[in-house]
Amino acid sequence: MSNETKRYTVIIYSENQIGLLAQVSNVFTRRSLSIWSLSAGASAIDGIHTITIVTDGTEKRVFEAVRQLEKRVDVLKVYHYSEEEIVYRELALYKVPTGKVIELGDIEDILARSNGKIVEINRDFTVIVKTGTTEETHELYDALQKYGIMQFQRSGRIAVSRERQEPVLDFLRRREEERNK
Question: Which residues are paired to 126 by β-bridges?
Answer without folding.
Answer: 96, 121
